[in-house]
Amino acid sequence: MFMNPFHIRAAIGLLQGIALYALYRASDHGGWLSLHPLLFSPLLLAAASLPLLCQTGLGVLRPSRLAAWLAGLALAVAVVGAHDRWRVGLEHAARSDLMPGALAILGVAMLLFIAWPLILAGESERRWRASYPAYFDTAWKLGLQLMFSGLFVGVFWLILNLGAELFALVGIDGLRRLIGEAEFAIPASTLALSAGLHLSDVRPGIIQGLRSLLLTLLSWLLPLLVLLVGAFLALLPFTGLNSLWKTGHASALLLGASGLLIFLLNTAYQDGSEQPGRVIRLSLRAACLLLAPLQALAAYALTLRVGQYGWSPDRVFAASLVILGACYAAGYGWAALRRQAGLAGVACANIGAAWLSLALLAAVLTPLADPARISVSSQLSRLQAGRVAAERFDFDFLRYRGLRYGHAALLRLKNDPGVDGAVRLKAGDALSEDKPLPKPPAQAVRPRGPAPLPAGFLAQDWKQAAKRTGELPSCLLDGRNECDAYVGDYSGGGKPEVLLAEKLAARLSLFQRNARGQWTLAATYDLPAACPAPLEALAAGQARAVPPRLPDLDAGGLRLRPRYPYAPQECPVAKK
């Protein structure tokens, strides 16, 4: 007797939530996974993605084939996740974020989204290469399923939060506390996502109807884009290319225009089985021909930048997109020039580009074409060839953006006696832990209230302080985040103190001046989410010190401080 598909998907969603919560607990508060970033990143990527593929593959693949494909994809995801943390460098892993980097997250998402429809379509037709309509239907169904399931989860949480606030109005805070706990939030989210995937799967007619409506609407934007791109290319012989290169982002703009042209072209072409109207047909053929000059301009702009400044991670990504765009341009141009009805070559180009995308992703997400490795090698060759002087060379790029490859390159430059003395000195400075970071911009720390910031607070070497006290607000280190600063006597000691409220973190950091005149982190305070009351009180000068709930303990000459169990505080209701 077979289980109900909903029960299977619900069980998978619940197991996924349990697995994600277990990873969260094992990596938080000094858990054992916090010391193994090479293990945590692959496990997290696999637990977040593979259960979704399993649920969308139910009913399409036989259980044995589904398990085999998921095992193969799990191996690929593990390789990407482990490489993402390895490239950071094991010497930095203990103090780096355990979470996978943006490159790994986006890369795994794209890799699976491209590979899974190819697998499902092939398995549904029981052949290695399926028909193009099968690829088209599977890819759009998967994309719309994920989109509407994500929307379902968002509305699910909106309702839960609304209900929690309604109960709070009558003094019942249990629901608000419950939905704020990770033990509930993570499994509830995965269960809701499973429900959304199931509902969108058992009603295929709804998905097909929404897809038809969406594709019809978007296809009528193709003529407008073709008109604008055609006018732009027609004006270039008269305006020249100098104004285009002066923008500094011509490659990105041209690649973006190419990507949008490819997307809208496919919304009009669809699966190739229907003949659109005359305007759409002419726009389709014109779009196929316009893609080649756009890609040629993007490749030329990228070549100029690489020739001037060498490779950087962004330029490596751009080169991958240029290669992929060239595949589309060649296939679409060939289809348009053949003058066959229906532009049959577009389907072949799309299938070829999908496989090429997988190859490019596999190269970029592994050491084979790691953007950091290629960039470090390029910049080093420019330095050694004398194309850039040591005074103008960006050694900080090697240390902070070159990851383990840049660190190894700096070590070679520092220790190689055949290298110029100035280069060796600058490489040693870049490697030195005592090298001060650039001072944060003044606008990163903004005083609030009547009292100004104490003299010397921003001028202090906060990097050295971070080595002694641990994590500090990023507004003091590199200015990536902004902080509001409140000056006052918050501990009752009669001396000015500084409270920093980080913009992107619900946390306060209290700084005090020690006997040597140095500012040190004395305490941190967690704030309830979306609660302006504490900050309003600080701005009004109404914050005050209160006695601790439990005293410190003197045991064996050590002063032991209490660590309270985690209990989220409630935001006070504003008085009317």
Question: What would you say this structure looks like, in words?
Answer:
- This protein is of the alpha+beta class and 576 residues long.
- The chain has 22 helices and 7 strands.
- It has helices at 5-27, 37-57, 63-86, 90-93, 102-124, 132-169, 174-179, 182-202, 204-219, 222-239, 242-246, 250-269, 278-309, 313-337, 345-364, 371-384, 395-401, 403-415, 421-431, 462-469, 474-477, 533-539, and strands at residues 445-448, 483-488, 497-502, 507-513, 519-526, 553-555, 558-560.
- A hairpin with a 4-residue loop joins β3 and β4.
- α10 (222-239) packs across α13 (278-309) and α18 (403-415) crosses α19 (421-431).
- It is globular, with a radius of gyration of 29 Å.
List SSEs in N-to-C order: HHHHHHHHHHHHHHHHHHHEHHEEEEHEE
The count of β-strands is 7
Strand-pairing-aware structural class: alpha+beta
Distance between the termini: 61 Å
Tally of contiguous helical segments = 22
Biggest sheet architecture: 5 strands, mixed
Strand content: 5-15%
Main sheet: strand order: 1-2-3-4-5
Mass-distribution shape: globular
Query: In terms of per-residue confidence, which ranges show pLDDT below 50 for 5 or more consecutive residues?
Result: 91-96, 436-440
Cα gyration radius (Å): 29 Å
**Mean of residue pLDDT values:** 83
Helical coverage, percent range: 55-70%
